[in-house]
Write a structure and sequence with these properties.
This protein is mostly helical and 269 residues long. It is built from nine helices and no strands. Helix 4 (100-111) runs antiparallel to helix 5 (113-131), helix 4 (100-111) packs across helix 9 (224-256) and helix 7 (164-189) crosses helix 9 (224-256). The chain has helices at residues 9-31, 45-66, 71-87, 100-111, 113-131, 138-153, 164-189, 208-222, 224-256. It starts with 8 loop residues before the first helix and ends in a 13-residue tail after the last helix.
């Protein structure tokens, strides 16, 4: 099965640009030297987040306009994004239990990396609007979820691997990627907490090694339980519901006829 969303030159360039900006924006606290002017602007992060949000919107617009998505495919994108957004609040506040992650893994697997990045980012944006979770952290959550879902579409054997082997692959990926998602989101918000806890907060006067140690302590102290709960929930739901949902997604993809171009008959047809 071909990828339903084909990344054209503009959408691919936009994706590479937003990913590069995201990596720099997320990782700068660990790599900027103490004397760097960047390290003295930890409080400017909200402005950077706003700029990243604009780039993410550009990726979504370029992907939809350039990939040749038909109306059924666009409708499927909306339905999956709305479903993921509705699943996100389920279990919120309870040890990181977030069912939406298993849906993103399976959707990315069936629909491909291009559709996956678009779906992941759009799902987080929709969820934030529904739950009032709009803030400076939102663009990084959108970017991290886009990467999370896109990664599932890049896993090997999309046309040949089926059954228990595929479920095991998706479960392992979901477990590891859930931790990666939490780490990215934590690292994005960590500089904003400077001064709240002297031993684990970002220190603009410290070197990369010292700040890395601080971040690891911060992540272990504040996020490990949530990341583990998210990872285990993803594995359990993938193994339990994966076979049925994979069949449903593949059937819906065939019926949506992603690869069929929309044509219009002329006056004399």
């Amino acid at each position: 099965m071909s990828d339903p969303v084909r990344l054209g030159p503009r959408s691919l360039a936009a994706l590479l640009l937003v990913s590069a900006v995201g990596v720099v924006a997320i990782g700068w606290p660990l790599f900027a030297p103490p004397s760097s002017r960047i390290a003295s602007h930890a409080q400017d992060a909200p402005w950077l987040f706003a700029g990243l949000l604009v780039l993410l919107v550009a990726v979504l617009a370029a992907t939809i306009s350039e990939s040749g998505l038909g109306p059924k495919a666009v409708a499927m994108l909306g339905v999956l994004a709305a479903t993921g957004a509705a699943l996100r609040p389920v279990g919120a506040g309870t040890a990181g239990i977030e069912p939406m992650f298993f849906l993103m893994v399976l959707s990315g697997r069936v629909l491909g990396p291009g559709f996956g990045f678009t779906l992941g980012s759009l799902t987080l944006f929709t969820s934030a609007l529904l739950t009032g979770g709009v803030g400076p952290w939102l663009p990084f959550q959108m970017l991290a979820m886009g990467w999370f879902t896109m990664g599932a579409g890049l896993l090997p054997g999309p046309e040949r691997l089926r059954g228990r082997a595929e479920l095991a692959l998706l479960a392992v990926y979901g477990f590891l990627a859930a931790f990666a998602y939490g780490t990215v989101v934590d690292l994005a918000g960590w500089p904003l907490l400077s001064g709240t806890a002297s031993n684990i907060a970002f220190d603009p006067d410290a070197g990369p090694a010292a700040n890395l140690a601080r971040f690891l302590a911060y992540s272990l102290a504040t996020a490990m339980g949530w990341n583990l709960g998210r990872a285990l929930c993803t594995v359990v739901l993938t193994l339990a519901l994966g076979p049925a949902l994979l069949r449903a997604l593949r059937r819906a993809t065939r019926r949506a006829a992603f690869e069929t171009a929309v044509t219009f008959d002329g006056p004399g047809a």
